[in-house]
Amino acid sequence: MMILEVERLSVSFGGVRAVDDVNISVEAGQVFSIIGPNGSGKTTLFNLLSGVYTPDHGVIRFAGETVTDLEPDRLARRGLSRTFQNLQIFSRMSVLENVMVGHHRHEDTGILADLVHWPSVRRQNAATRELALAALARVGLADEARLASTSLSYGALKRLEIARALASDPKLLLLDEPAAGCNPIETQEIDRVIRSLIKDGITVMLVEHDMRLVMNISDRVHVLARGRTLAEGTPEEVRSNAAVVEAYLGDHGSKEATRAFG
Amino acid sequence: MVSLVQTRLMPAIVIAALIVVLPAFFPSAYYYRIGVLVFIFALAVVGLNLLMGFAGQVSLGHAGFLGIGAYSVAIGPVHFGVPSWLCLFGGAALSGVVAFIVGRPILKLKGHYLAVATLGLGLLLAIVLTNEARWTGGPDGMSVPRLVLFGWSARGATTWYWIAGATFIVAFVLALNLMDSPTGRALRAIHDSEIAARVLGIDVARKKVAIFVISAMYASVAGSFLALFNGYVTPDAAGFLRSIELVAMVVLGGMGSIVGSLVGAVVLVVLPQALTVFHDYEQVLLGLIVMVFMIFLRRGIVPSLAAAFAGRRK
After folding, report:
1. What residue spans of chain A are helical by DSSP H?
2. For labelling alongside A235, which of A165, A207, B136, B208 has CA 20 to 30 A away?
């Protein structure tokens, strides 16, 4: 089953076609990676898929329904969650509270019940706390739950964002450079987390520059260059694609290419 | 013992105890009067802090809602013969409706733009109250009939001390409750990252309007109390300086600290009274003291002191 289908998706900013006529089909339960040199439109694509940007053209179907113009919160309530390349942590909240916010879409109380702290609110708070702790345990941050979120290291914050997205119980999770700025051990941890998500039936889309991680974990890899699709296939197919190699070597991404192909 | 201290409502219990015990040390009725003003302003400031300190949305026009509340308990009984207590609720409802209607378009604005838009809202409400002299008495204001409940008339600072004190505690507990709930977490999330809040399924626009409405109703009730307690009301109640005073109380006490709201109100109500002994230098000293507070306790009195104590314990 295809969980996400994108047809002829395009968006322009000030005359620049950031994403240009892109088609994507993501099969449920797989890891689908988007790679490409810097500025090739990967994050823009994620912003389109998660409803942050509205496309100029094209159709997005999520779980069989057209969701092209849906607001991010509507998409989230249908089970699409994401993390951010440059972290978007709730910095005034504790680690645990950050993840509790992730569960918001499943919490169902009115503002009046919240004001008087109705017993249902109390029950729900306790349930959300349990769930958030479980999500933190999955990314290896259980011991840090009580800390201020600002006291975590960069790599830990990356995993905190994953835990927060997990708490929303997504069907499809978009991870925007989860390993960027992480050391090899932290990257391995990310790898482990993604594999455990797949085991739980969550589909993962990945934008990532760490080619070892991408090639190890992906079922399919989609290559973008200047907003357009350059190639798509299994990691092996993409690795041996002449156009891909050239795009990387000829563009800013030469460093990534050496890491990927060298 | 530890668990008792850490319970959510502990600050409310401590403050309620203080409210009950303090009058034993009041040398005169004048102190009750100060107490009433503290509670009334703290009520409005808690509401404004929910909006500013938690949701991160500034309002420089909140005295406008104070004005709606104040004039509701003046105009209702005088012109229509409606009982004051009913007008108090009516005023709160009207403030809520105004906030709801205005909130949707202006809460799309951010930062300074939102500040100016709310400033405009406050000025607009103040001008309406000044110009509709047939109903409001114009710039001279109008007198406000006493609050009468079940044939019993609320008069005097001592009586109002208990009415305002009890109401403040209720409002205080409601605010603590709200912050420890899904809505409260969503609001704090919006403050830090709207985009992250949205992709987690939070309807940001709706939550902002909701807290704007609640915040306006807090201010309205405070305004009604102020008018009923003073026995008169002038358009100053809704004026720009009042709005600034409320914002100053929020920031001085501590953004995002419910206890801080009370502290901010205490300082800015009590300090001018205490400084009257300095006659001509009163305003200068007040300004100076507030500046010193902000320079040395830059996150506000309560959060800064709390952080300092937490640091020392380590």
Report:
1. 42-49, 72-77, 95-102, 111-116, 119-138, 154-166, 184-199, 211-217, 235-239, 242-250, 254-261
2. A165
